Amino acid sequence: MNKNVLKPARVFEQFARINQIPRPSKHEEQVIEYLKRFGEERNLETVVDDAGNVLIRKAATKGMEDRQVVILQSHMDMVCEKVKGLDFDFQRDPIQTVIEGDWMKAKGTTLGADDGIGMALALAILDSDDVEHGPLECVFTRDEETGLTGAQGMKAGFMTGKMLINLDSEDEGQFFVSCAGGQTATATFRYTRVQVPDGYFFLSASVDKLKGGHSGDDIDKKRANAVKLLARFLYMESEKLGGELYLADFHCGKLHNAIPRDGEVIFAVKNEEKENVRADWNVFAAQVEDEFHVTEPDCHFHMGSAEARTVLPQSVGTAFIRALQAVDNGPMCYCQDEALAWMVETSSNVASVHTAEDSAMVTMSQRSNVMSNLDNMTNTVKAVFQLAEAEVSVDGRYPAWKMRADSELTRITVETYRQLFGKEPKVIGIHAGLECGLFSERYPDLDMVSMGPTLRGVHSPDERLLIPTVDMVWRHLLEILKNIPA
Predict the structure, then answer these.
(1) What is the structure's pLDDT at 369?
(2) DSSP assignment, residue 63?
(3) 144 is annotated as an active-site residue
(4) Tens of pLDDT along 431-441?
(5) Exposure of 349 by Cβ count < 10 A (0-12 exposed, 13-18 middle, 19+ buried)?
(6) Which positions ≥6 away from 317 have C-beta within 8 Å?
(7) 332 φ, ψ to 5°?
(8) Contact yes or no for 320/235 (Cβ under 8 A)
(9) What is the per-residue burial (b if ≥16 Cβ within 10 Å, else e) of 360-396?
(10) Which position among 28, 114, 115, 144 bears the catalytic label?
(11) In 227-317, at which residue ranges do the beta strands (DSSP E only) sit?
């Protein structure tokens, strides 16, 4: 790694240390201990709450003691995704970074810049003696990616500041002042497996090398969903064969907040139909490649024979396939407010499907900036699977964050950006869940803005960080801190 291109060095040094620490969601114990040591070794007040969130306080620099307390907030966990076949253990192995031009990425895994770079910015300030600032509270929350349970479990009074800068955004020069709420629906089919009749042949169909991405931020980018592609083919073939298709296994997707990038299905058809099915698959693959020729140029399709095995009862398998074909996926509607008409308001992502010996589970995440429409979207998804006689549960609900028209922090953020860079930033909302939504419930008077350097491909092994934007965010953050009022 050429450290000469990594500016500011103090931020990238902190990021490199963070990436040596395993920190999958719900397994943040090692990074919590690291943060405790970090604060204690610098004689900074360090507190860990019952939910596992870490708060490190730093006193104001001389002459700025009367400024308002500012909270710098980031989350300590990361999405753990890797390319197919890579031997990598996220609970043991450090992230290996590489530089390609102006971009930093990892070798075959997610980079962890979401939100390790936000942590690094805060830690660099805590570790510096030449940065002007008022009283600071640096808050590192746990388990943001798989349930926001750190923010959910935070009690009122843990933070005392009235202004909060969330360092978990992905576009330099864009400041987010609202976010979507969300929840997760899970459908479960139960069955007793059966043997296929005589005269059936087993086939395996798979798709991989899709881009995937964040189920909120990337949901409008017209990327293919591996679950929906495989279900689409199974539905067409089942209809063509008059239902004479037996589903054995369906495995696709890993995380509720990621667009699934690859998957495989195993199914059985009559011996005399297998070559027709292979031909249909080739036609289907060509059609999908053409359909997504811009957004999925590397998609790869494969079909081969598979070993015989037990299957789902035909009635269950058919209902399962029909439900996956019918369920909504992608943007459902865009915001009604003219200023945000470009932004997705409500969406759903079919995130994962996994069959087991006696059950099959489908996980789907819904998002909306309007909570009533979030419930409507979730009920639409529920109804599809209820019609298919699946059990459906909903959990992981978190609120939307509504824009604050009189935000002093937003005014300071915009004005300092103009002064530093001589251009106008964007003040917008985001169709993704931020912990700011939960903070706004627990701390209704909290003035918040979300910012960060440019990231692309988050929640996938293509995650990458635009290096020059880190220095821009660092300089801007320091200027904001200088201008916080008394």
Answers:
(1) 87
(2) T
(3) yes
(4) 887 899 999 88
(5) buried
(6) 245, 246, 247, 311
(7) -100, -40
(8) no
(9) bebbbbbbbbbbebbbebbebbbebbeebebebebeb
(10) 144
(11) 245-252, 258-259, 263-270, 300-305
Pick from 168, 178, 251: nearest CA to 452: 168
Contact 72, 121 (CB under 8 A): yes
CB < 8 Å & 24+ apart, contacts of 439-446: 439/73, 439/151, 439/154, 439/159, 439/164, 439/401, 440/399, 440/401, 440/402, 441/399, 442/154, 442/155, 442/156, 443/156, 443/159, 445/162, 446/159, 446/161, 446/162, 446/163, 446/164
> Token pair for residue 199?
């005269």
Tokens of 423: 């251009």
pLDDT digits (tens, 9 = 90+) for 112-138: 999 999 999 999 999 999 999 999 999
Task: Supply the pTM of this predicted model.
Answer: 0.76
Distance CA(200)–CA(63), nearest Å, equals: 81
φ/ψ of residue 201, rounded to 5: -125, 140
Active-site annotation holds for 100: no
Active-site entry in 77, 81, 137, 345: 77
Given a cut of 70, whether residue 150 has pLDDT beyond it is: yes
β-pair type (181-190, 455-456): unpaired
**Burial, 412: exposed, middle or buried (Cβ in 10 Å; 0-12, 13-18, 19+)?**
buried
Tally of residues, the chain: 486
Amino acid code (one letter) for 112: G
SS3 per-residue string spanning 422-473: CCCCEEEEECCCCCHHHHHHHCCCCEEEECCCCEECCCCCCCEEEHHHHHHH
Please answer whether residues 46 and 112 qualify as being in contact, where contact means their C-beta atoms are separated by less than 8 angstroms. Answer: no
Q: Which two tokens stand for residue 332?
A: 């459902």
The pLDDT tens digits of the residues spanning 163-221 come to: 999 999 999 999 999 889 999 999 999 999 999 999 999 999 999 999 998 888 889 99
Residue with tokens 């396939």: 321
Q: Give the model's pLDDT for residue 339.
A: 64
**What is the residue-wise DSSP string for 96-165?**
-EEEETTEEEESSB---HHHHHHHHHHHHHHT-SS---SSEEEEEES-TTTT-HHHHHPPTTS---SEEE
Residues 75 and 115 sit within 8 Å (Cβ to Cβ): yes
**Geometric angle at alpha carbon 26, from 22 and 31, rounded to 5°:** 40
